[in-house]
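[step 3/7] inverse_fold.run input=structure_tokens len=193
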């Protein structure tokens, strides 16, 4: 079976993708290929950061590879935290620190519109492709729910009464930014095998 590297060590993301591509691609993690370094995300766009990760890993192993990068863009903050979503409250901060910072930045805001965006960068047989998944919604007044991770407790997608953290994984994946980007990746890969 053809090997495909997913440039991550996030177990949750890996098992999701493995399940979807089962029988079509042998999905390998960074640990599986012996890639142990941290990869910098030095750029100001998700597309550039995702391709940086994919190219670094491709140069390391020569295999087909894809990488993802995600950001939360808040209207009232002119698109912040965006590419800085992981370290919004500072280097080494926790998900809870980020949630608290965002709630405090928005304490006076009436416009709470936000969106999540995921970019998946793929290098397949030496050619580059990318896929974008988005979900629009709003930042709630306070955190609720224990599922998921990151900003899930304060993000309520349009058309739902619950935050992402109040949904089961299957429901979240069916509408989420990453779920949508993955669906596009899978449709593309399926057309190739
Ligand atoms: P990454 O590029 O997938 O590592 O995402 C960067 C940051 O965005 C994470 O550290 C989280 O804070 C946030 N994030 C990414 N995906 C999600 C999600 O599905 N729900 C909530 N927060 C997320």
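[step 3/7] decode complete -> sequence:
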């Amino acid at each position: 079976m053809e090997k495909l590297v997913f440039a991550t060590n996030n177990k949750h993301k890996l098992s999701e993708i493995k399940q979807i591509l089962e029988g079509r691609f042998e999905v390998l993690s960074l640990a599986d290929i012996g890639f142990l370094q941290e990869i910098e995300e030095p750029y100001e766009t998700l597309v550039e950061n995702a391709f940086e990760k994919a190219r670094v890993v491709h140069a390391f192993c020569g295999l087909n590879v894809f990488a993802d990068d995600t950001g939360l863009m808040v209207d009232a903050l002119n698109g912040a935290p965006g590419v800085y979503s992981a370290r919004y409250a500072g280097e080494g901060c926790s998900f809870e620190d980020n949630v608290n910072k965002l709630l405090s930045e928005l304490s006076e805001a009436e416009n709470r519109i936000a969106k999540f965006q995921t970019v998946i960068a793929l290098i397949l047989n030496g050619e580059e492709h990318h896929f974008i998944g988005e979900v629009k919604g709003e930042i709630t007044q306070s955190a609720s729910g224990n599922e998921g991770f990151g900003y899930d407790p304060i993000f309520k997608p349009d058309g739902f009464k619950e935050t992402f953290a109040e949904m089961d994984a299957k429901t979240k994946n069916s509408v989420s930014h990453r779920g949508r980007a993955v669906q596009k990746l899978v449709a593309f890969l399926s057309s190739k095998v």
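[step 4/7] annotate
The first strand starts at residue 2 and ends at 6.
The pocket of inosinic acid is lined by residues 68-70, 72, 85-86, 95, 98, 148-152, 164, 176, 178 (CB under 6 Å).
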